[in-house]
Amino acid sequence: MIAVTFADPVLLLLVVIAPALLLVYAVLQKRKTLYAVRFTNLNLLANVVERTPSIKRHVAPVLFTVALATLLVAVAEPQTNVRVPKEEATVVLIIDVSGSMQAEDVDPTRMEAAKSAATTFIDVLPPKFRVGVVQFSDFAEALTLPTDQRDQVAAAIATMEPLGGTAMGDGIIRGLEVGGRQINPDGTSEDPPPSTGDEATDEPPLVLLLVSDGANTAGTFDPIDAAQVAADQEVPVFTIAPGTQDGTITIDDPDFGPSTLQVPPDERTLERIADETGGEFFSAPDEEELAQVYSALGSQIGFTTEEQPITRWYVAAGVAVLILAAGASLAFSQRLP
Question: Which of 156, 204, 236, 266 is the right S-S partner for 215, CB 3.0 to 4.6 Å?
Fold first, then answer.
């Protein structure tokens, strides 16, 4: 359903003019009938008038009232939110390459499914979008700076291999840096956000897409603290948790031999990161759903919502109904209203 707002809603009070006129018309019609009954020789009238006036005579006034109401609504300048394509933006993929990404609860593994879906994701982004890639395990590193060369980004994604712990907070901070934000060594930022008040800078918006399946076990920065830095910079972080709660990996210990370790995604932390930054959390338990999430994110990141006036549509509708009213009046009364 399309939501309609008004630039000047107070002017909607003018709409009461339309039903008021309709009420006046009804009263006049009633008075005309009473007058005819009171002062007319009914026997003579029955011989002169062959039939009762048709209800069709009311069509034109009713249509005229509807047209007037529609035009009065247009005076309040109706508008609605529409999705328009963004021309430019920077998206930084922050992908977990810790050992838990070896889990096979997503076919063939979480890592391979994430890489495949990420490659699909960058293909659905608008051509002018620049994409950077950051991977993190025990530490975070940039694989490629933001670029519009999709083959370069795909090649960087293809090099990812799972190994080590999970430095999720470091990944977010590194993603902000790759996206052009100046972050201090302690994880704070003195840069102003990219927009203040109603004034926007020429800098393209930055969006982070974090894919991680494990709880934070390494690195310098806590994930929630890092998310707060992103929020201060007005950078939304969309988060994806690949895998299921039953995911496991096998660890080959030289002293004790192979053992099975459960590696459920840390969905609570990822949800909180998304909430803190104005992003959105997605749970993607299998390869197909993971690909759908990436595709949906491409649509969300590639569009923005803007208010656009729709006054002309109300004016057009009002004029159209006014023409119908004139036609009905000529057809049923042989005169214009």
Answer: 266
Q: Residue 310, class by beta-carbon neighbours within 10 Å (0-12 exposed, 13-18 middle, 19+ buried)?
A: middle
| Number of CB atoms found within 10 A of residue 124's CB | 15
Backbone CA torsion sign across 211, 214, 220, 226:
positive
The closest alpha carbon to 230, from 250, 259, 210, 203, belongs to 210
Nearest alpha carbon to residue 277 among 237, 240, 304, 239: 237
87 closest CA partner among 302, 308, 306: 302
DSSP 10: G
Instruction: For residue 85, give the 3-state DSSP assignment.
Output: strand
CA 297 to chain centroid, in Å, comes to 10
CATH superfamily for 87-193+201-301 is von Willebrand factor, type A domain (3.40.50.410)
Start-end of CATH 3.40.50.410 domains in the chain:
87-193+201-301
- Cα gap 135→93, rounded to integer Å: 8
Task: Report d(CA 194, CA 202) in Å as an integer.
Answer: 9
Q: What pLDDT shows up at residue 202?
A: 54
Locate 122 and state its tokens: 């960058």
Closest CA to 72 of 6, 27, 28: 6
Please give the Cα distance from 58 to 329 (Å, whole number).
9
Q: Specify the amino acid at residue 79.
A: Q
Express each pLDDT in 235-291 by its tens digit. 999 999 998 888 888 877 677 767 788 888 899 999 999 999 999 999 887 777 877
Q: How many CB atoms lie within 10 A of CB 104?
A: 16
pTM surpassing 0.90? Answer: no
Spell out where the chain has E strands.
Answer: 4-6, 78-85, 90-96, 130-136, 140-147, 195-196, 199-200, 206-211, 237-242, 248-253, 257-262, 281-284, 303-309
